[in-house]
Amino acid sequence: MAENFLSVDERRQKSVTKLIDSEILRKAQENHAKLIPIIETIIFRGRQEIALKGSDEVGPVLHNNVNVNDGNFRALLRFRVLSGDIIFENHLNSSAGNALYTSPAIQNSIIHICGELMQEQLVKKINSACSFSLLADETTDMLKSGHKSGHQIRPGPDLKKKPDFGRSRGQTSVYP
């Protein structure tokens, strides 16, 4: 026991606290690496205006049944694996079903966070502009629920018009 204390004190060996801290850091970095492909896929889908929801959002993402259309999101995740993302493939193959980070609830959380970040950036741009105009419209979809959208125009540093599109106000998630 005294030898252990001396080796830690002389920095020849890491203390238990440092070992635990480094393990926590390693696990956080590993989870970060697992989430990045999912977040990037959701952002890509949003930029390309590709719907997320599929008819069957349960079960393994990596399956061999080509007859099942389980949605664009899961198809894009499989495409990412086919494109060579080995770390993400290992995550999908080795994680428990409730730890895949691909559920509709996780998707909605990521979409909500992205919306908040976009709104923050938009508010900063508006606050830094000398003036802006706002165009708003409301429409009703086939389910008779109202959706509001906005478009603001502000002059940039060069005083040219810079359009920014606001997010829809009628629906806060892609899943009921």
UniProtKB/TrEMBL annotation:
Protein name: Uncharacterized protein
Record's compositionally biased regions (Basic and acidic residues): 157-167
Origin organism lineage: Eukaryota, Metazoa, Spiralia, Lophotrochozoa, Annelida
Segments of this protein annotated with the region Disordered: 144-176
Source organism (scientific name): Helobdella robusta (Californian leech)
Top-level taxon in the UniProt lineage: Eukaryota
Gene of this entry: 20200385
